[in-house]
Amino acid sequence: MQSPLELTDQIFSPPAKHEALRDEIYCQIMKQMTSNNNRFSIEQGWQLLWLCCGLFPPSQSLLRHAQKFLESRRREPLASDCLQRLQSSLRTDPRKLPPHQVEVDAIQQNSTQIFHKIYFPNDTDEIFEVATSTRIRDLIQNISKNLKLASADGFSIFVKTHDKVLSLNDADYFFDSLRQITDWSKQAKRIKEGGPVNIVYHVFFMRKLWFNVIPGRDAKADLIFHYPQELPKYLRGYHVCTKEEMVNIAALLFWVKVSGDKNQIAMIPKVLKELVPGDQLKAMSENEWRKNIVTFFNKQAGMTVEEAKIAFLKAVCRWPTFGCAFFEVKQTSEPDFPDIVRIAISKTGLTIMHPKTKSVLANHPYNKIANWCSGSTYFHMTVGSLVKGNKFLCETSLGYKMDDLITSYVNMYLRERTMQTRGQRYNM
Prior knowledge:
The protein folds into four domains: 4-105, Alpha Horseshoe (Serine Threonine Protein Phosphatase 5, Tetratricopeptide repeat), CATH 1.25.40; 115-207, Ubiquitin-like (UB roll) (Roll); 219-316, Acyl-CoA Binding Protein (Up-down Bundle); 325-423, PH-domain like, CATH 2.30.29.30. It is 45% helix and 16% strand. It is built from 13 helices and twelve strands. β1 (115-119) and β2 form a beta hairpin. α3 packs antiparallel against α6. InterPro entries: Band_41_domain (IPR019749), FERM/acyl-CoA-bd_prot_sf (IPR014352), FERM_2 (IPR035963), FERM_central (IPR019748), FERM_domain (IPR000299), IRS_PTB (IPR002404), MyoVII_FERM_C2 (IPR041794), MyTH4_dom (IPR000857). Residues 341-370 form the PID domain. It is found in: Cytoplasm. Belongs to the TRAFAC class myosin-kinesin ATPase superfamily. Myosin family.
């Protein structure tokens, strides 16, 4: 027995790739539904036609006939929806891939509304309606509006599979992106395990680009995204900070953990790993940490948990590494650097750091990076000019993330420059 998705793949994969086959699919479905007395067959035909109208339109020569077919069957439950989808597909680019499992499941249950769960960094989630023609940028705007965020800039949709977290391209269709990622994962897993595979994935909405992030300016964004995304980086010891800063932050984090309950002070030594960067735990004895944290903790009187979280962000945003994405890689091109280095990618460029001392080994602003590329086991970049530039080579399984992040920041600056140029022309 073939699954419904395997069948829809057989029908829609060829016309998604080859425009010349699209009219043939429309003709075959409409022909199957003409003078057909089998009600079950008719219903399945409508489901296929509904999927088809959302993927791509027929050619101009067939369009009038397809519209007449739908208009003459208005009593059918899906006819008017098919007509709407057909009109919509005429105004947009055709989809590149066959329907996703979610779309097939929805129409098989006679639901023309498709909902998808979106997860957030603060361990909450919400259901959002996603249409066949929804692009990633539409979904980003929709989620931002729903959450009442001050701006959608810098946010992105990510898909997490068993082995990867991939950021989706703003211009792509949501279901095409999902389809591409789940197909890649299936293929890789099938090669590894053999036989049929099932891919579990989750869709996340998170901040990707950290520019114009000023803690306290958008409390919603701070609490849902900035705090839960920055806290793990702090506790992993990625930042350079003083003892006093660490004690102050530890008091704020403990306030968040116990909701300001002073009766819980005795448990500080047990939860130190959740309050202090991992590499700094031995900087003081447990008793010293407790004593110093209590002093700062008592100064927080009257503060809410939300205020404590924003105070944490206000403390860490002063550091140059705030908002950076960190990658531990093995470098093979710089003899004066240690073999393992930490790379921090931020709005200003790429910084290479010593993983233990956290000292800066090299700074490369985006306008000095000539090119970059990545593969499943490496990340390479050229600093300076393409001809005389220095190559920086490293081994990492996260090269795809580094590549995507640098590309996104560079594209952001290119967009800004284009808008400024247009503005100057307009003013002239």
